[in-house]
Write a structure and sequence with these properties.
The complex is a heterodimer of chains A (164) and B (205).
Chain A: H1 3-27, H2 31-48, H3 58-73, H4 100-115, H5 118-128, H6 133-140, H7 144-162
Helix pairs in contact in A: 1-2, 1-3, 2-3, 5-7, 6-7
Chain B: H1 3-13, H2 23-30, H3 37-58, H4 62-70, H5 74-101, H6 108-147, H7 160-189, H8 191-202
Classes of the chains: A mainly alpha (164), B mainly alpha (205).
Chain lengths: 164, 205
Amino acid sequence: MSQKTEHTFVALLEKHQNIVHKICRLYTNDQAAHNDLFQEITIQLWKAYPKFRGDAKFSTWMYRVALNTAITLYRKSKRKIKTQEFENVAFKIKAEEYDDTTEKQLSVMYAAIKELNDIDKALVFLYLEDKNYSEISDTLGISEVNARVKMNRIKKKLRSILNP
Amino acid sequence: MDELELLKKDWKKQEKNLPHIEAQEIYPILLKKSSSIVKWIFFISLGELALGVFLNVFLADSEYWKTVEDIHLKNGFIVFYIVSYAITLFFIYKFYKRYKAISTTDSAYLLMKNILKTRKIVKYYIFYVLASSAITAFVTFIFTLLYSSDFDNIREDMNWPKAIGFGLLVIIIFVVVLWLIYSLLYGILLKKLHRNYKELKRLEL
């Protein structure tokens, strides 16, 4: 691929990298694995870039490739680097912005989301990213109705965790 | 308020806590090699296809053909080898086509489906190799009993049903054990993929 293409790709990835970081945080538990997955997603995005048609939004296309890498292609690295576990620290919000109860609720919910299976995590992720059900069903290859049903079940599950 | 709506509000805020990688740090990543499951599958599958070809080509040396000739199987085996090469080529072609169809820009479901289909081609190939090896081993065993000079002295008094039954049993046990080990390894390699695929299949279009 030409240098110009490479520069354009890197600029786009730099701009939209938050999407990749959020996926990495959802699917990994430590910094080493986060970096590993970030690297694999970047490689897969770069490999798939020739297929990217300008008519679609780069970020939309990115969601698909990045999630596919996290759910399907990524093989956990065998490296055992002792790093601090993210747990909920990764998602910790500034305490002063919420009262104690809200903060606690959020913390419990983030922990619960980390415990979901790969597919449910992807659903919640796309939902939190404000994607509509048509986009969610397109990205995952499931029906819109099933995406809604599944999302409602996850909501119910989270509710029951918060209010046992 | 809906719990997830609360989370959605917070989700945006946590963006400022995310790491930031500079463009200069992205360039070297583009040069790195992928270690994805597809790459693993590709190399393992190539190894398996090569193993079949290796067994056909390198184990069949002149001594082997001499033995085969002695037990009157040379012509039969020539036909078998020609058919076997054609079948192997067909599997390689199918594998290549399926492998090319794997695309990360497809939906998650389609991507998983294509990976599993690609892998299945190689699984069928291994099944074919084991089955054809079992059949040739059995035919060789029978013809050895019938024509090999090693059995000239005992051929008259041989209990044929017992000998054939014993040969068949050994070959079947051998092949079944190899198939079970193979399926187990295959299952371990694709455990996560199978689990996620099953989950998506339930929610399929």
